[in-house]
Amino acid sequence: MIKQVVKRSGHIEAYDRLKIEAAVGKAFKAVGVPEMDKNGTNKVQAIVNRVEELLTRMMQQRHPNSIPAIEEIQDLVETALIESQEVPVAKAYILYRSRHEAIRDTQKLMLDIDATMDGYLNQSDWRVNENANVNYSLGGLILHNSGTITANYWLKNIYSEAVAEAHRNADFHIHDLSMFSGYCAGWSLRQLIQEGLGGVPDKITSKPARHLSTLMQQAVNFLGCLQNEWAGAQAFSSFDTYIAPFVKADKLTDKELKQCLQSFIFGVNTPSRWGSQAPFTNITLDWSVPQDLRDKPAIVGGKEQNFTYGDCQQEMDRVNRIFIELMLEGDAEGRGFQYPIPTYNITADFNWESDNAKLLFEMTSRYGTPYFQNFVNSDLNPSDVRSMCCRLQLDKRELRKRGGGLFGSDELTGSIGVVTINLPRIGYLAKDEDDFYRRLGRLMDLAKESLITKRKVVNRLLDAGLFPYTKRYLKTLNNHFNTIGLVGMNECLQNFFGADCTIATERGQAFALKTLQVMRNRLADYQEETGELFNLEATPAESTSYRLAKHDKKRYPDIITAGTDEPYYTNSTQLPVMLTDDIFDALDLQESLQTAYTGGTVFHAFLGEAIEDWRSCRNLVKAIAHNYRIPYFTISPTFSVCPVHGYLAGEHFTCPICKSEQEAAIQARISALEAERNAIVQGVTK
């Protein structure tokens, strides 16, 4: 017996047979067909009986707690009318549905415009504060409004109804719907050095920079221009390798080099992109000159020099030292810099004993700023950074690594779009393992469809000139991936096997690994079928994890989620919060899972507070790089920032220095009042 239905708004209400009868009755009247047949049988009642029969049969195939949606019931009405050979009535009913949908859309559009504006201006819409990089501002309002319109356009006018419904119903999440562009991109700093900034019709063109100060300005403008044409991170690889020859050619002093790097850092932190945001930038630093560049002539001012990149190791060391010093200094108020996000390549010849290493690990132990890319013990290859874009793909089933971790991309590659699969819902609804993988496969097929559609749209717009700087410096999107990710593996296991089965259990680990392999195999099928690049990513799904969990809790109240006050899902195949505070236990549990991804992934080594000795931090990073196949990781110490006293090691909800100062001030005030009172009392006595 059907007791409840899910309305289009997502709200659940009691099932009402009379509403179905009324809608079918209107369709009969609209075409002048009598409701009673020759035998005196009420055809409307018969149709609704058949609908309920079909509905019961459909729900028997689902999870016991599943609730049918209004749209599903209306689809069954159409089926029952056609089965009964009431074709004119079926046409009238379909027209009735279409007309009411148009009315709802018109009403919704007017309501959406008001709600969108009011939600931002009153700061009542959660999306206003979703992105920490966007401040409440006119630029933020413009981005908020245009993003809402763009997202609706994607879902209503571009994606198929099945894809749009899968996103709306939270079966999966299509990222960056608010942007009519690709996701992330890696660029060649070498190309900028060789060709300069420009070459775009009707835009200013600059020749190749002959001095580092000019190159840094060009790099800031380059990243800003490209950020306006992409939704996510923009990356440069081998940053220190490529700029070191400028230091050598101009014989820059430390002071001059510092000013150049300072202008770059402040430039990429200026809110110059759409929505009053700073460009989301990542730079990869080689630390040591890469093997494939050592014997190549260095380029300055677009011309080859009479020395090689391998001759510039000392200048690279100076670049790295001064860059770290600047990141430690922060801005004029001591505030740390958000960008660029630095990724350091840990290679076999990484110098762990240098003065620069001391600085690097002091920064790491204090702030956890850098990310580390493991070229020592993973399957990553440093030369892939520059060879991905020109390598023939002989094996069409080989899933290539995108490189660059979560926030970066190798040169001239990146991602067109990202779709994250809601695994906990699959675990909740699936009856057995076969059903689990059937449901997963169906959603992956829809995700593939959405990504292929997006690639076609972005490619067409690239050719039409909507992304002029991308067209100038990239030429083609053939080396950009279609990215599929997942969220909530831990909660998926709990819903599928029972609350005691987490990703830390033997059974949970085995099933998680099998699921990742199933997803990889399916992506290889897609790649072979389409000729396009696909990858599997541990998507950073912070806001997505809340959106999907919130939808699921509303629809399936007994589904297992993380969180107490607010439901959320654990990111990708990460360990749940507070599972263990032993870094090496966490590494043991995560190693096989992290290495299964071919797109972005990162292991966070969470620490209770800063590591006091830089040597301990160095030894930890070295141990991870040499003993684990984790491809990309970061050290994450816990620290707090007081507006008055700045950096505080560990977690503090109130500043202990401020608190002691306040207590001292209060005590001094009390003492003063007591002295004043005593003086008054003595005066009265006299």
List keywords for this structure.
single chain; Anaerobic ribonucleoside-triphosphate reductase; Anaerobic Ribonucleotide-triphosphate Reductase Large Chain; 4 domains; alpha/beta; 11-stranded mixed sheet; NrdD; 22 helices; 17 strands; 686 residues; ATP binding
Provide a descriptive summary of the structure in words.
- InterPro entries: ATP-cone_dom, NrdD.
- One of its GO terms (molecular function) is ribonucleoside-triphosphate reductase (thioredoxin) activity.
- Keywords: ATP-binding, Nucleotide-binding.
- This protein has 686 residues and is of the alpha/beta class.
- The protein has 4 domains: 4-110, no CATH class; 189-346, no CATH class; 386-601, Alpha-Beta Barrel (Anaerobic Ribonucleotide-triphosphate Reductase Large Chain); 654-686.
- Helix content is 50%, strand content 12%.
- It has 22 helices and 17 strands.
- It has helices spanning 17-30, 43-60, 70-83, 87-121, 138-158, 161-168, 189-195, 212-227, 239-250, 254-268, 313-329, 355-367, 384-387, 423-429, 433-464, 468-473, 489-497, 506-530, 542-555, 583-594, 614-627, 656-685; strands spanning 4-6, 12-14, 172-174, 184-187, 234-236, 281-285, 297-300, 303-308, 341-346, 371-374, 414-422, 480-487, 534-537, 603-606, 632-636, 639-642, 646-649.
- The strands form 4 sheets. Strands 3, 4, 5, 6, 9, 10, 11, 12, 13, 14 and 15 form an 11-stranded mixed sheet that branches. Strands 1-2 form a two-stranded antiparallel sheet.
- A hairpin with a 3-residue loop joins strand 16 (639-642) and strand 17 (646-649).
- Helix 4 (87-121) packs antiparallel against helix 5 (138-158), helix 8 (212-227) runs parallel beside helix 10 and helix 15 packs across helix 18.
- The protein is globular and about 100 Å long.
- The N and C termini lie far apart (93 Å).
- The model is unreliable at 387-397 and 404-408 (pLDDT under 50).
